[in-house]
Design a protein that fits this description.
Radius of gyration: 25 Å
Structural class: mainly alpha
Strand content: under 5%
Helix content: 55-70%
Largest sheet: none
Length: 462
Amino acid sequence: MSYVRQVLVSHGCPLSRLGEADCVPDAQIARRIAAAAKAQGHRQIAPDATRIRRWIDGERPRPPVPALLAEVLSEAAGQPLTPGDLGLTAAGPDLDGIQLPLLTEAAAQALAGWTQMDLFMNRRDTLKLAVGAPLILAAERMLGGTARALNNDRRGFDADTVTALEEVTAFFTKADASKGGGLYRAAIVAQLAEVARRIQDGVPPSLKTRVFSATADLAALAGWVSHDAGGRYGVAQRYWSYGVYAAGEAGQPDRGVEIVTRMSHQMIYLGRPQDALGLLGVAATKAQMPAPRALVASQTGRVYAALGDEHQADTHLGAADELLADGLGDDVPEWVGYFDAAEHAGARAVSARDLTGIGRPRRAASTHFEDALQLRKSGFDRVKVMDRVGLAAALFNEGEPEQAAAAAHQALDDAARIDSTLVASRLNTLLDAARPYETATVDDVRTRAKDLAAARPTTIAA
């Protein structure tokens, strides 16, 4: 079935009724396209009903017809559609952007293309990083998207397959939180590729929520390990964008919000705080549950601290404090279960560090890092290592070189067992903090930190 036909079917025009008055008849589509073409200066484009029928049946017109057809069908559907949504791009879905088609099969086809480029081309720069307005607008569109019904009679999933998908995703998630996902990244992406293939085969309505919920989790993880362990920033964005889409298909918009915060974290890491704020602003308008709202507020405060805006940082970090104090509820989903008082203490620690660095000290960053370490739950070894490295750097900044060196050696012992560029980034922060001190003890810390950081090259301090 062509994607054009699927759009019409999904908007109340079954195959037996295509062409009837309330299903946008072929002649009416032809007249609308001719009028739109004339308005844009394309006077040579004047299709008849027969040509429209061919397009509906799968024939691909040449530009500018795809854009005109998308414009006309957008009006009929009451929702913006692109040529990619209709399967009318020259080579299928656009793999170079992060916008996804609104149709389930087309979106899965794009995901499959991304995984193939990732696994077989094995280049970190295969897909361009989206930044600025295109990134923010894409996030807004994805979070506001409407799920589409599948129109494929084949079935790619049964109950046992979905259970297996949920279990393997849980395993990979736990392994990443503990030791980093570098060892598992290729396996995670391969699993995502298989899921994309099965989605194109069709999902039984009774399993749709579970399939897309598990897929959102897997895509979020694939994006995270691609960013953290692989340094594949562009492909990470694509996996996250599909995760947001899948969350919408599962009827879990707050799941999409959490994934957008991951995209904002990447922007912080890459030194683009304004883009991070743009993403978080979109997420804030969509978050409904207490935990995602607190997460967005906490991360927003952290970004403002990085920008040196003490007032806005305090406002947003304080909002997260209040939500945590009120309780996040008894039914916090697993996908946001990592955000708790410990995670927020970590955000406050980094915020205090950044504000201190521009001469606006409040409570010492080291005390916030200590709070985070005391509150961390078991199984989150990577973030504990980041806290320990952060604590050592903060103590150097606070003029406590002996305490800092002792904390640093403990942190470096733990860091050697973690495969994460985020940890390496914190090591660079530690090296910067230790620079003013010239003692044998600090020199030893410097040597060890440099060796570890060199083994896991990174882009910028996080």
